[in-house]
Structures are given as C-alpha cells and as structure tokens.
Design goal:
Distance between the termini: 50 Å
Radius of gyration: 20 Å
Protein name: Hormogonium polysaccharide biosynthesis glycosyltransferase HpsE
Number of helices: 10
CATH class of the largest domain: Alpha Beta
Pfam family, one: Glycos_transf_2
Strand content: 15-25%
CATH superfamily of the largest domain: Spore Coat Polysaccharide Biosynthesis Protein SpsA, Chain A
Number of domains: 2
Organism: Pegethrix bostrychoides GSE-TBD4-15B
Largest sheet: 9 strands, mixed
Number of strands: 9
Helix content: 25-40%
Length: about 325
C-alpha cells in the first residue's frame, strides 16, 4: 500500500479562529504561489471553533484552487490544540504553519520545501517575518516586536543554538511531522494555566519547540521564506499589550522547565530572584516615564510576572495533582 505521506510534498496548515475577514487574502496569496509546478502540495484550514463564515469561505475557494484545499473543525479552543490537530490531519511529512494574518511571499511554499531538502536534520525552521503596522508602534517597540511574532534575524540562514534560550514563534514555521510526533507530547496539561483571558495559549510555541530542540533535531531560521504579519491598531493598545506581556511572563517558568528533570525545579527560584532584581532596576530607571512610555511599561510587566511565574506553576501543578472530590 502506498503511504499518502509519500505522495504529498508539503502541507500548508492554517489554524484560524473567526478568520472570515483575514482568511480570504491569505488564500488568495497561496493561490498565487510560484515555483510550485513540480510540487504536490495541499492547504489545510483548521477551524478552531469559529462561529463565523470560515467554513463557507474555504468551500468557496476550494472550487478554484491550484492544489487540494481541505477543511477540518477543531472544537478545543486554543492555538496548541489547533496545531496538534493540523499535525494529525496533514498528508505530508513537511508541514508549514501560516496564521491567518501572516501573508507569505509568492515563493514561500517553494522556499519551504527547498530548505527541507537541503537540511535533513532540521526538525523545524522559521520564516523571516516583517510587520505591517496599521498604526505607528510605540517608541522603542523594536525591543519587543519579537513577542508579536516579528522575526528579523538578517538575510542568511542561521541555527538556533540549543544553549541559548531563544526560539521562534510557530507563525510561519515549517516542521517535520515525524520530529513533532517524536518529541512534542500530544497532551500538555500545562496549557490549562497558560491560557490567556481571550482563550489563546501563551507560551505553547516555545514549549513545543523546546521539546524538539532538546532532542537531536535542529531548529533553523530560513530568511528565504518571507512573510508579512498584519498588526491591527487594537494589538498596539495599552491594555492589550500590558495583558499580553503579563501572560508571557506567567508562561516563563513553564517554558524554562520544559524537558528538565523535576529535581531542578527549585532552580526556578534563582530565575525568579534575578527577574525581581531586573524589575527593580527597570522601575528605578523608568519610574517617571511608565505612564507615557508603553514599551518600558510592557518590559516591566514581563519582568514582574516572570518572577511570579514559578509560584503560579507550582500552584497549578498542585491543583492538578489533587484528587477530585466524590459527588
């Protein structure tokens, strides 16, 4: 019997939640991909519990699409669940993730497939992601733009060194399905407390890639895959950004502990003390500008909640380990 994974060269997976306004432009850009004449590829839209017309949009595009356009519904809310579903549903070994607000360059698919052939040990590799801001970002925001899935690391491919705590986002990321299945746990209960108030996961990108990097697989930056991230004005509002960086801070203890033995857990206290030291120094430096300097205020939120994160993690772990009361 012929394995379907041997027939499809690459799957472009699009996790989306209520993306009826964003999804059409992304699908049009995938329709216009160049250099794919010799590739057998597909597009898979993972509808993550949408309540809008996402399904109807996919159906309308599927009638005139240059490759198979598939749809599946994932009822469990959250980016982590949507990406896990995409991995299970993909018909190829190479799976490229595009968020519905990430617009790929015309040769993105071809560049993604080519890099996989050139780097067989790459378990994952990310795109060069530039920003299209609807409004001007705050002064100094380039210090924080990586947290909004902006990834500008130059024009040459580079390896993410395992000894450095830096990893890319899964927006614009390509993974080998076998590497993901081999290293990333299918069920990660820690996401129960990494959920933001809007229902999205915070830190799951880093968590998944940390599992992969701590195995024998490599993680790369591939600037030949270029995308542009659409940043609407609401994502630069003060309340949104402060809440985002609070959530990222709270995820720090979990991402720092992924793949490490439990006996090293107390070392998180050292991270916490260092974060507190940095937070105190940051406050002393910017205390008179925190109400007007949004970038500095976000940095302070990140440091404070990073310091708190080990206690939040331990409390959540204790709650999960407690037996449920009998009815």
């Amino acid at each position: 019997m012929i394995d379907l994974l041997d027939l499809i060269d690459l799957t472009v997976a699009i996790p989306t939640y209520n993306g009826e306004q964003r999804l059409p432009e992304l699908l049009r850009r995938l329709q216009a991909q160049i250099g794919v004449e010799m590739l057998n590829w597909e597009v898979l839209v993972v509808d993550n519990n949408s309540t809008d017309a996402t399904a109807a949009i996919v159906q309308a595009f599927s009638a005139d699409f240059p490759c198979p356009l598939r749809y599946c519904f994932e009822p469990v809310q959250g980016a982590g669940a949507a990406r896990q579903r995409a991995i299970r549903e993909a018909s190829s070994e190479i799976v490229g993730f595009l968020d519905d607000d990430n617009w790929p360059a015309p040769d993105w698919v071809a560049a993604a497939y080519r890099f996989a052939q050139q780097h067989p040990q790459a378990g994952a590799y990310c795109s060069r992601i530039s920003a299209d801001y609807e409004v001007e970002p705050p002064l100094g925001f380039q210090r924080l733009q990586a947290f909004l899935a902006i990834n500008e690391r130059g024009s040459k491919p580079s390896l993410y060194a395992p000894q450095r705590p830096i990893l890319p986002t899964t927006a614009g990321l390509v993974v080998r399905r076998s590497a993901w299945l081999e290293t990333v746990p299918r069920e990660m209960p820690q996401h129960l407390w990494l959920k933001r108030r809007d229902g999205n996961d915070c830190g799951e990108d880093i968590e998944a890639l940390t599992y992969m990097q701590r195995s024998s697989w490599e993680i790369w930056y591939n600037p030949a895959m270029q995308t542009r991230h659409q940043i609407p004005a609401r994502r630069l509002e003060r309340d949104y950004l402060l809440a985002l960086f609070r959530s990222i801070g709270l995820s720090r203890a979990m991402t720092r502990s992924v793949g490490k033995p439990s006996w090293q857990s107390p070392l998180l206290l050292l991270y916490s003390l260092n974060d507190l030291r940095k937070a105190a120094g940051h406050w002393l430096k910017y205390r008179r500008q925190l109400s007007t300097d949004l970038t500095a205020a976000c940095e302070l939120q990140l440091l404070i909640w990073s310091a708190i994160s080990p206690f939040k993690m331990w409390r959540a772990s204790f709650s999960l380990s407690m037996p449920m009361p009998h009815a």
